[in-house]
Write a structure and sequence with these properties.
The protein is α/β, with parallel strands linked by helices. It has a domain of about 200 residues: Rossmann fold. The chain is about 40% helix and about 20% strand. The protein has 12 helices and 13 strands.
C-alpha cells in the first residue's frame, strides 16, 4: 500500500475460518493488497485473532458459517474469497457435511449472482474426491465440485500434512521425535509435508494469478518419505535417536471406532486416521510453476518448525 492508498481504495477480500494457523499467517500477507474482512465463529476466536494481528490490519466479524444472511452482510462488494473452513475430526456436534458442503453452499448462496466473477480460493486435502471411501475426503471432494461447478473463478489447493511454527502437526511430530521409541500406525505410510509459509504463499498467489481459475492444484513438499523416516529425520534435528515401532493400522482404526461409540468428542476417529494414513507421493512442480512459488526444503522446514516447538 502506498502512502496515498487507503483501505477504501483496495479490492475487498473475505477470509473464512481465519483464526486457524494458516489464516493467521495469510492475513498479514494480503492486508497490503486487499481490504480484508475475516470471519470467525466465536468471540473467543475474534479475541485470539485480534491479538495475533497488527491493529487495523483486518476487520473481524463473528458469524456462523451456515448463516447465509450474516455472510451476505459482509461478502457484498468483495472481489475475492479465501475459504479455510473445514474439519479433520468429526464429532457428534460437528459433522463433515455441515463443515464442508454446508459451509460452502451457505457462502455461495450469500454471494449470489456475483459468484460468477469472484475469485474463490478453497483449501482442501490431498486425496479429496467425491467418490472417496473416506467420509472426510469424500465430503471435501463434494465441496470442491460444488465450487468448481458454481463459481468459474474458483481455485482449489489440495495439501497433505502442513508443518508450521507452533502448529499442532509440528508439535505432534516433535513429540514423536523426542521419544526414545516412536509409535506409529503403519509407519511405512508415505508423508510429503509442506511448509505452512509455502501454502500461504500459494493461496496469496491464487488470488492474483490470472491463468489459474477453474483449476485444482495438488501441492505438497519437495520430499516424500515414510512416516518412520520422517520421525527419524526430525529426531536428528533434535540430536535424538529414536526407534520407530510400526503398529497395524487396523488396530488403530478399531480403537478409534470404539472411542466414537462411547465418546461425544473422541480424540481420534477412524475417518481421521484414514486421512492421516493416506499415502502422499506427488510431483508438486506443476502447482509451483502455475502459482510461481518455491518450496521450502524438508530439512529447513524441520529446523524452523521442530526446533521452534
Amino acid at each position: 500500500m502506498t502512502g496515498a492508498d487507503t483501505q477504501e481504495d483496495l479490492p475487498r477480500l473475505l477470509v473464512t475460518g481465519a483464526n486457524g494457523h494458516l489464516g493467521r499467517r495469510l492475513l498479514p500477507l494480503v492486508a497490503h493488497r486487499f481490504a480484508v474482512t475475516a470471519v470467525v465463529r466465536s468471540e473467543r476466536a475474534r479475541t485470539t485473532l485480534r491479538n495475533a494481528l497488527a491493529p487495523g490490519d483486518v476487520q473481524i466479524e463473528v458469524i456462523d458459517y451456515q448463516d447465509v444472511a450474516g455472510l451476505g452482510g459482509v461478502v457484498g462488494g468483495c472481489t475475492a474469497v479465501v475459504h479455510l473452513v473445514g474439519i479433520l475430526k468429526e464429532s457428534r456436534g460437528s459433522r463433515y457435511q455441515e463443515a464442508h458442503e454446508g459451509a460452502t453452499r451457505a457462502l455461495l448462496d450469500a454471494i449470489g449472482p456475483a459468484v460468477h466473477s469472484i475469485r474463490f480460493v478453497y483449501l482442501s486435502i490431498l486425496g479429496a474426491h467425491p467418490a472417496s471411501t473416506n467420509r472426510c475426503l469424500a465430503s471435501k471432494g463434494r465441496a470442491e465440485r460444488m465450487l468448481l461447478e458454481t463459481a468459474p473463478e474458483s481455485v482449489v489447493i489440495q495439501v497433505p500434512m502442513v508443518l508450521g511454527e507452533g502448529d499442532y502437526a509440528a508439535a505432534a511430530l516433535a513429540r514423536s521425535a523426542r521419544s526414545r521409541i516412536g509409535w506409529a500406525f503403519r509407519s511405512a505410510s508415505r508423508e510429503q509435508p509442506v511448509y505452512a509459509g509455502d501454502v500461504v504463499a500459494a493461496m496469496a498467489a491464487a488470488l492474483l494469478e490470472p491463468g489459474v481459475a477453474g483449476r485444482v492444484f495438488r501441492l505438497a513438499g519437495p520430499e516424500s518419505l515414510s512416516r518412520a523416516a520422517l520421525i527419524q529425520r526430525a529426531a536428528r534435528h533434535l540430536g535424538n535417536s529414536v526407534t520407530t515401532v510400526s503398529l497395524p493400522f487396523e488396530v488403530g482404526r478399531g480403537l478409534a471406532r470404539m472411542m466414537e461409540w462411547v465418546l461425544a468428542n473422541p480424540p481420534v476417529t477412524a475417518a481421521m486416521l484414514e486421512v492421516l494414513d493416506h499415502d502422499d507421493d506427488i510431483d508438486p512442480r506443476s502447482a509451483c510453476e502455475a502459482l510461481n512459488i518455491e518450496l521450502t526444503p524438508l530439512d529447513e522446514m524441520l529446523e524452523r518448525c521442530i526446533e521452534a516447538d
